[in-house]
Sequence to fold (575 residues):
Amino acid sequence: MNALASEYIPANNKTETHLMLESISSIHLHSQLQDQPKSTGSATTVYFLVLVGIVVLIMAWINYFNLTASRSIHRAKEIGIRKVTGASRASIAWQFLTESLVMHTISFMLAIIFFNLITPIFYRWIGLPHIASFSLLGLITRAWIVGIIGLFLVGLFASGFFPVRYFAAVNPSKVLKGKWQAPRTKFPVRKVMLTFQFSCTVILAIVVLIFEQQFSFIKEQALGIDIKRSIVLTAPANVDSTYLQKLSSFKNQLKTKTVIHSVATSTDVPGNALGSGWGGNIMRSADETGFGFGINVIDPDFIESYHLKLLAGRNFTTGDFPGTHFGDKLEPVIINRKGSEVLGFKSVEESIGQYIYWGLRKEASKCLVVGVIEEFHTESLKKSIQPMLYVANMGPSMTLKLTEGADKNLPAALAQIKDAWQQFFPSNAFDYFILEDRFNQQYEDDERVARLFNLFCLLAFSIAGVGLFGLSMYSLATRLKEISIRKVLGAPLTHLVLKLTSEYLLLIILASVIALPLTYFGIKEWLSGFAVKIELSVWHFIVPMIAVVIFALATVMIQTLKAAARNPVESLKNE
Fold:
């Protein structure tokens, strides 16, 4: 391709053309280039959501182990009797692996059923209605089958291996005498698992809170430009040499419509990357290194139509339009405040009447700065405002600002606009978009991710709550005699509750301590992608942590109060 380019676009002493190819299959998730056929996604976001999904699944496996262990007291006699009657370790191990296999198989079948039932609702909820009819059959490939089988086997082993080892330690003689206690290990597996669960829960809770605040903060920010009640007409594709003349006549006729407040043309509109298709090297003098500017060709109505603030100088007039070619005369231009600062002018007033150059040194066109406008956001607030240069001319994109109330009856307003369109461009399809909607599309992916995080956080809370419930149930079952003795010796209820919950409180605080630094650096990195962002405070981390602690303690308290209120005679009658 480069050889072809060098043949048809010969290099000169200033520029050289190099082409870069891009795999079509990589565009959707891996391309950040402008002017793609459709808006692209983010591979990083997808991988991160997959990671969160795996973490939630691991939390569910942990729960299976914890709940199995919590039932050990009730199943110990069963295992003891089986051992006495000749059952081997292998047969007991096979029993628990079979139970895990049955549980996983039923869960897998239910997952397939619920996947097909919930998918349409789920995709509509996250804002992807165009793939709401997506089915499981569309996923089935060799790699998908291998992945699912691998995940199934990992889950089977992870949730079945620990119970096998756990119940293999049952001593039948002690069990049948009522003296068996759950084995204690040097490495507190269940406590580590609980800490992991609540670390993940705290992380997700903090992320959800900051996501919501960041997107609310962005929506409250003033753009510096008025895009309300604005419709943008797609430029006609089938044109001839009379196009500019027809465009001017079409614009003048639209101004006579009662539903139209103003009409402006430009090469770019808010919501697009301004200057993405036409950038410029702007210099203070023709013999120095320039600065990269975005370029937008606008007509004299652009500034008024978008309610932009002219800081110094004047607006364009039709007399500022270029001749046969741009640069045939001293071209008047307007820059924004950012452009004035980049070029080194001490004030916007100093910029007026100054000469600047657009192009590559000796071939650069000489321009005269006639105006400076206030900078404004034309893209997502993720991006910082760039220096801009505005040139006077008719642009292909036409923005129509409707009058007050006309937007309430949009079909009627569009009918009038379409009638005028068909008079001047009958061989071109009438196409348009609502500017405010197009601008807000820049945040759709982020808001979709935020909704998914809300769902993941709810799942994590539920799973962590079930896990904690199971672990506390197990722990209290092994300490019933201790609780009964303490009650007999006069321990008050508050003392028992504090004694039984303090262990979990320490674990949850440890989980928070682990989660806080990880979340802080991750959120800091995510916020660095926004030009406008909230300031992180200690409350962004403390409030979710406190919420998780309260939730966890409430879960434990249910079991604790039940155990503490139990009649001690029931636990001590055989002693």
